[in-house]
Amino acid sequence: MKVIGIVGSPRKNGNTELLTAHALKSLAEEGVDIELVRLAGLEIRPCNACMVCKKEERCSIKDDLFPIYLKMKEADGIILASPVYYGSATALMKGLMERTGYISRWNGEVFRGKAGGPLVVARRAGKNFTFAQLTLWFQILGFFVPGSSYWNVAIGREKGEVESDDEGLNTAWNFGKNMAFLIKKLKG
Fold it and tell me: In Å, how far from its chain's centre is CA 151?
C-alpha cells in the first residue's frame, strides 16, 4: 500500500509541505508506504487541449508532469495539497490536475477506486473554495474520499506558522488515519 502526497506550493519546506508531511506520517504509522512529491522547482504547464492523451497514455507537453502521473497511477492513495493563491489552488496544482485528469480519463480511468483527498493551507480566506476545488477533482475521477474531524484546511502564512494551528494539524492527522483505514478496506 502506498500513498503519495503532492505539494502544489512553489515554496519548498513551507506550510503546505509541513501539513502534508504531517498527514503522511499518520499514514506511515498505519504501515502505509509514503512519498512526498514537491512541485516546487518543477515545470508543470497547463493542458493545451491537443488530445494526444485521448489516443495514447501520454502527454505531448514536454515538462515534469508525466513521471508524476506514473507515480499517481501506481499509488493506492493520493493527497493533493495546495496553498491558497488568490482564492484558488496554485497554477502548478491546477496544471497537474488538468493534465493527469485527462490522461486518466482517456486511458482506462486509472484513478477510479483509489483513495484520495485534499489538504489546503491559507493565510486567512479562500480555503473553503480551494478545498472544494480539489475535492471535486477527486470526485469526478472516481476516487473514494475519506473524511476527517473537520475540513482538511489549516492556517499559516509565514513558514512554519501552520505548526501552531492545532486544529488544522489534528484534522490532517485524522485524515491520514482515515485514508489508511479506507485503503486497507479497499485492498481487502
Answer: 14
